[in-house]
Amino acid sequence: MTAEATPSLVEATGGPAEAGPSVRRPRAGTRTAYPRYVAGKLGGAAVSLLAVLVTSFFLFRLIPGDPVKYMTGGRQVSAEQLANYRKEFGLDLPMWEQFTDYCAKALTGDLGTSYQFRAPVIDKITEALPNTLLLTGTSFILYTALGIFIGTRSAWRNGGVGDRLNTGLALTLYSIPSFWLGLLLIIVFSVGIGPIPGLFPTGGMESGGETGFAYVVDVAHHLVLPVVTLVAVEYGQTLLVTRSALLDEMGSDYLTTARAKGLRDDLVRRRHAVPNALLPTVTLIFINLGRTVAGVILVETVFSWPGLGGLFYQALSVPDLPLVQGLFFVFAAAVIVMNTLADLIYPLLDPRVGR
């Protein structure tokens, strides 16, 4: 290029060209893709919560039973007293008015007053929530760690004896009803059968009268069988998802390249294969994390655990409509929030998502 052509080139480009490699600027669509993705997910979550709010009101009114008769304790009461009860809890109002009143209060955090406890629903939920989190949170940590560890080992040794045994056991336990397994454990390890003595309590959260470290040990003693039940039933799902995702990754070219560089097989698995294979497992973990708030109703009922699941079962038997509606909304909201959070984090782990 001649020197005379240089000034014209500078004018055409608007200035001198910078030295060094060219930098590709992100397209405008790429910069706005993730915020648009987040807005869509948050909007979907809001619509889901609204649908749950509506469903929780109408669904449980299909349950047979008169809550007013339960509140009277089976006593003979006059029609005037029954009318006063209905007026006190707003049951004398038209259905549409009950619905609008319920939605307006729910949006402010007021889930109503429990019929049987004569206390705000939110107070009963707050009281039982720590017990549920203790049980399901402990189980969640154990079955997630166990499922990921065994799932990666099974996939890496695909087709071996250990893989077949682990997969078969996971499928078997995952198909067993949790309440049936819980009852079986109570019969064997609480009541005792044959040479096996009763080692654990049949139910409840504490024996009573214990304080300090002795109280912690007592609660842990009551916690063993419910946790074993949940871990045995739930770990198989994490194992199977992790195993399947890792098997899909094992034929990838980057693993072959890593081995060609001389990396040990164990290092290839831990540093390269597992992190990429865990993306589907992350979604499952968040879904299960949302379920820890709901607890497992049948397991808490079988073991008389004083958590949200047991409270829900107790409220259904009345029926205690405000308590049932409030618990159902909290359960569903926890799952929706955690699913949405998983959707928002997923593009950060895999940039291809959300573009």
Question: What labels would you give this structure?
Answer:
72% helix; 14 helices; 355 residues; mainly alpha
Cα-atom radius of gyration: 29 Å
Binned strand content: under 5%
Oligomer: single chain
First-residue to last-residue Cα separation: 42 Å
- Note the run of SSEs as H and E: HHHHHHHHHHHHHH
Low-confidence stretches: 1-26
- What is the overall number of helices? 14
Sheet with the most strands?
none
Share of helical residues: over 70%
The outline comes out as flat
| Structure class | mainly alpha
Count of beta strands: 0
**What's the overall average pLDDT, rounded?**
79
How would you describe the overall organization of this protein?
- The chain is an all-alpha fold and 355 residues long.
- Helix content is 72%, strand content 0%.
- The chain contains 14 helices and no strands.
- It has helices spanning 5-13, 28-59, 67-71, 79-88, 95-106, 121-156, 161-175, 178-192, 212-249, 253-260, 265-294, 297-302, 308-316, 321-349.
- α2 (28-59) crosses α5, α2 packs antiparallel against α14 (321-349) and α9 (212-249) crosses α11 (265-294).
- It starts with a helix and ends in a 6-residue tail after the last helix.
- The model is unreliable at 1-26 (pLDDT under 50).
Question: What is the strand and helix layout of this fold?
Answer:
Layout: H1 5-13, H2 28-59, H3 67-71, H4 79-88, H5 95-106, H6 121-156, H7 161-175, H8 178-192, H9 212-249, H10 253-260, H11 265-294, H12 297-302, H13 308-316, H14 321-349
Helix pairs in contact: 2-5, 2-14, 6-7, 6-9, 6-11, 6-14, 7-9, 8-9, 9-11, 10-11, 11-14, 13-14
